[in-house]
Every structure is written in structure tokens, then in C-alpha cells.
Amino acid sequence: MLAILGSSHGLFFGLLLLLKPGKDTTRKIFALLLLATSIRIAKNIVVHATLIDPDLRIPADLWRSLVNLGLTHQFAIGPLFLLYFRSRLVSNFAVQARYLFHLIPYAVLLIATPWLTWPFWKYGGLWLSYISILLYYLLAFREFHLGKKRSMMNPSTSRWLNALLVIVGILLLSYSPALFHYVGYIGGAVLYAIGIYVVSAVLFQGGRSNDLLGEKYRTSGLGKSQLEGIGQSLETLMTETAAFKDPDLSLVKLAERLEVAPHQLSQTINVLYRKSYSDYVNDLRVEEVKRLLLSRDFAEQKIATIAYEGGFNSLSTFYSIFKKETGVSPKQFQKQHQVKN
Hints:
Strand content: under 5%
Radius of gyration: 25 Å
Order of helices and strands: HHHHHHHHHHHHHHHHHH
CATH topology of the largest domain: Rhopdopsin 7-helix transmembrane proteins
Number of domains: 3
Largest sheet: none
Shape: elongated
CATH architecture of the largest domain: Up-down Bundle
């Protein structure tokens, strides 16, 4: 019964978030993740429906289609989980076409749901789906820790994403070959039910759902005047001292120089510039490199020297960021503007 309630709650909660007014992409991704996971867990209930009601009879074709539908959603859970983490860690996040390629296996299997047979799952399909979830989980885990290392998250976001990793990690263990024999289908469903109720409680405790699901800083303690004050101090520091040229400059170090908390500085940059801290600093470095590339004083200098002078400490990172910002390589940029001049 607890498994049924948990799955039903997840479906209802997911639909509630998906249909909530507003265009917040992060919230909608989380809603789709909840729906996909709840449909997958509901499959376990279908499989053991006769344990709940011995008199229940489900037509064989319908039973097979429901089981296929549930298992197929395992190929959606991993990509959506990673996509949610990216949407929380990347400023100005937007769903791009390349992200949708990750959902192609899910789309193909969803179309084929009425015709899939158990041998498909038994002899490879199930293993592929579990491996898919595990790989995407590890990618999300990696992005989370890179975000923490770069101080890209405020404390509440960090705790929230960490909690999701723990809950999903427990579910992954419960369905692993090593523990599945002991936990079983319903055991995993019960664990999911407990997890979904914990998530719901965290999200709606004190009205924190906006901040944690993606509508960032809407309930933050920083007012408009505070944001503008920190922003002005930041502009002054960058203009007068070119602090961005320090290759070891981190969010924490910059916050210390401005005498503000790291999460307040991160919020200020996100709200005023619509960028993450790393994007903000790298944009300043690119502008400085562009200036140096066209400067007569640096006309004979190597590109690497100019990149380091601009604040970059990795040539591969520099070339990647520069081309992303300008559309051309540093040499091409230099030649194009020298010709124009």
C-alpha cells in the first residue's frame, strides 16, 4: 500500500509541478523526472498486483504493455537526472537540441512498447537500462562536485542536490544485482515512496520549492539595493585592479576582497549579469585578451603569453572559451581586425 501511495504521490506531484504557471525550465525538467520515475515504480505494482488483490485479472496484452511502459521509462530517468543538475548549475540554461539526443533510446522504445517481449528485457534490455541510469548518475555526481569546487552553488542548493544524490544512490543500490535479491520489486517501490515523501517535505518546508526547483533567488534575503551595491563594488574592483587577471581567483577569494559571502556574490552575478561566476570572469578575460591581441605592445608576443597575461592558466581552456565567445581562433581574430584597421 505504501508503494502505491508513493507512486501515486510522485505522479500527482510531477503533474502539479509541470502544470504550474510559469516558464521555469528547471522546474519542468524536475517534474518530468518525477513522472518518469513514478511510472517506472508503478510498473512494480502492476507486476505484483495479484498480491494486493488475488481476484484481480489483467488481460495479458495490457499487462505486457504496462510492464514495457514502466521499464522503458528507465531510459528517460538518467538523461533527465543529469539535465536537471545541469539546469541548476549552468546560468541562463536552455534546453538545446543536443540534449534531446540522449532521449532517443527512450523515444524509440516508447513507440515500440506494444510489441516488446520479455526476452528483450531479460537478455540485455534491463542491463542496458540500469547501466544507463548509473552512467548518468555518475555524470551528475561529477558535475555537482565540480560545481562545489568552483563555488557555483549557494548552501541551500548544495544541500538539495546532495540530498537528491543520496536518495537516488540508495535506489540504485536497492535495484543493483547484489541487493535486488533481498530488496525485490516492492522493496524498491517502498524505498521510492519514502524518498518522494522526504523530497516533498523538503521542497514545501517554509515555501522553499521555488529556490530549490530552479526559480533561483526569488526568496533570497538580498534586496535590490544590496544587489546593486555589491554589483557596483564588483565593477569598481574589476576596473581598477583587473582582479580577473589572477589565474587563481576563485569565488571565495573574490568574495573575501569584496567583504561579502560567496553565495551573495554568486547571486549578484547571476541576477545582474545572468551568468555564473566562471562565465563572468572568463568573459572579462576574453575581452582583455582581445584588447592585447590588437595592442602594438603585444604584436610580437605568442598567443600563449597573451592568454596567460589575460588571466587564463590553461591553453586548452583558453582556446575553447575564446572560440566559443568570438567564433574564431585568436590568430584569426587578430588577422581579421588587423586587416580592418
